[in-house]
Amino acid sequence: MCGISLGLRPQQRDLFLNESFPVDFQWATSSESFKVEGGWAEDGKGETNWDRFGHDGLAFANQTADLACDSYHKVNYDVYLLRGLHVNTYQFSISWARIFPTGHRGSQSEKGALYYDKLINALIDSGIQPVVTLYHWDLPQALQDCGGWTNASIVEAFKDYADFCFSRFGDRVKTWNTFSSPWVVSHAVTHNMIKSHAEAWHVYNEKYRKTQGGRVGIALNSDWAEPLDPSRPEDIAAADRYLQFMLGWFAHPIFVDGDYPAAFKTQIEQKIKECPLSEPARLPVFTAEERKRIHGTADYFGLNHYTSRLVNNSVGGCTPGPQGIGNFQSHVDPSWSSTASDWIYSAPWGLRRLLNYISTEYLNVIKVPIHITGNGMPTEHIGDSLNDVSRIDYMKSYINEALKDGVNVQRFTAKSLMDGFEGKKGYSQRFGLHYVNFEDADRPRTPKQSAYFYSQVIKQMDLVATRGVF
User: One GO MF term, please (predicted)?
Assistant: First the structure.
C-alpha cells in the first residue's frame, strides 16, 4: 500500500473537509443497453447472452429484457428526461449485437448503427455530452457460443467492433469506456478482457485521436476495504488483498506496469502450493510485449463504486473464489444503512478513502483524472415507489465525499436514468431516478423524488461552487 494507511479510526475517517465542485464538473446519469433498450430482435439485432438468459427463464418471475424500457423507440422521450435533470453528460452503452449481430463486422446492421446516431445527435442538440461504453456485459450470443471471453480470438473481434464505433460515432463522442465493471463478469477471463481493452485503446490512439480529440478509458468497479480491526496488521494486509483482488486485478496492469500486482501473484502461487488436490486456476502470464502494450492505456480512471466492506484476515482453506484464495473475509457494519440489494450498504466515507487510495496507488506516474462512472442504490418495487427518500440520503452523502482532499475527480455519474432490467433480479430492483411502469405496454416514465433532488444539486452547482453539506 503506497502511502495509504487503512487503519483509520471512525472519528478520523468521518472528518468532513469543505471543497467545491469546479465550474466545468461533469454531472451525469447513465443507462445500459440490455437494461433499457428492448427491441431485442428488431432491425436485425442479434441475440445476446442476456436475451438468452431471459428466454431460458432464469430472471426473476421469468421476466425478460425483450421490451425493457423500450428506449429503442423512445430516444426523444429519454433525452427529454435528461434535459429535465439538467445533466451535462449521459453515459450509455452500445449493444455489440445491435451493431454486429454475430459479433463480427461482416454482419453489420446499418439500422442498428442509425439508432445510436439518432441518440447521439439528440443528446448533442440538447447540449448533453454523450459518453459511450462499448461493453457492459451483453455479449453477442454467437460469440458466446464460441467460448465468449475464454476464446482468445475475441480480442481481435472486440478491437474490430471498437474500430467501427470510433469511426462511426467518434466525430461526436469524445469519451469512451471500453468496459464497465469487468470484474463482475470476468473472474475466469480477465486476461482476454485486459488485452481487448488495450487493443481498443491503441486503435483509437493510432487512428482517431489526432482528428477526433477524444479520450478512451475503462470503468472499473471496486468496494472500499476497511480493516475490521485497524490495530491488527494482519487485518490491514487482508484489506489490501481485498483491494488487489478486486481493483488491482485490472488497474495494476493498466496504470502501473502492464502486469498483475506482485502481491496478487504471490498469493495465488501460495494457494496453489497449499491446495495441490484442488488447485485454483493458474494466473495467465503476459509477455513482455503484451505488458508494454497494456501499460498506460487509459486517458482517465473510471470508477464504479457503491459500497464498502470491513475485512479481516482468514485462513481461507482451499475454498475457490477471491475470498478463499485471498485469505480474507468481508463484513458490513450493522450501523450502515441497507438497501434493496443484498450487497450494497451505504458507507459514503468509503468513497473518499477509495479515491485517495486510487490517487496514491495508481495515478502517481500516469496523472489522469478520475471519473466516477457509476454510483447508486436500488429500492424495491413496493409501496410509494416515487418517494425514494433513502436514495436521496445515499446520493447526498456520496456526492459530499466525491471531491475531498484535492483528488482530481472530474465527473459524478448517478446510476441510473430510469428503472431497468437488472439481470437475474429482473424488474424487482429499481435503480432509476425515474420510475418505469413495466405493466404498461407504453412504458411511461415518472420522475422520483431523487430526480428532483439531483436536478436541484446540479442547478445549484451551475450557479455557484457550493461548499459543505447540501
Answer: hydrolase activity, hydrolyzing O-glycosyl compounds
How many residues are recorded in the chain?
470
For the chain, which domains are there? 10-462 (3.20.20.80)
- 282 CB burial (10 A radius; 0-12, 13-18, 19+): exposed
Pairing of strands 409-414, 429-430: unpaired
Instruction: Report pLDDT digits (tens) over 95-124.
Output: 999 999 999 999 999 999 999 999 999 999
pLDDT band at 276 (very low <50, low <70, confident <90, very high): confident
Are the C-beta atoms of residues 415 and 32 closer than 8 Å to each other?
A: no
Contacts for 376 with CB less than 8 Å, ≥ 6 apart: 306, 391, 394, 395, 414, 415, 416, 431
Contact by Cβ (8 Å): 100, 69: no
344-371 tens-digit pLDDT: 999 999 999 999 999 999 999 889 999 9
How far apart CA 51 and CA 47 sit, in angstroms, is 6
Residue 300, number of CB atoms within 10 A of its CB: 22
- Mean pLDDT lowest among 61-75, 262-276, 444-458: 262-276
> What is the rounded distance in angstroms from the CA atom of residue 122 to the CA atom of residue 128?
9
CB 36 within 8 A of CB 71: yes
CB 166 within 8 A of CB 174: no
Cell of 24: 466545468
> Contact at 8 Å (CB) between 73 and 39?
yes
CA dist 166 and 158 (Å) reads: 12
Ramachandran quadrant class, 57 (left: phi over 0; alpha: psi -120 to 50; beta: rest): left
Q: Are strands 308-313 and 337-338 parallel, antiparallel or unpaired?
A: unpaired
pLDDT at 316: 81
Q: Report residue 341 as a C-alpha cell.
A: 440489494
- 236 phi/psi in degrees, rounded to 5: -65, -45
DSSP-derived secondary structure letter, 140: B
Which of 182, 132, 190 minimizes the C-alpha distance to 161? Answer: 132
pLDDT the model gives residue 215: 98
> CA-CA distances (angstroms) from residue 443 to 142, 270, 435?
30, 53, 10
At residue 469, does pLDDT exceed 50?
no
Placement of cell 475490521 in the chain: 228
- The beta strands (E) that lie in 13-115 are given as 26-30, 89-93
Sign for the CA dihedral angle at 35, 41, 46, 52 comes to: positive
Q: Is 8 exposed, middle or buried (0-12, 13-18, 19+ CB in 10 A)?
A: middle
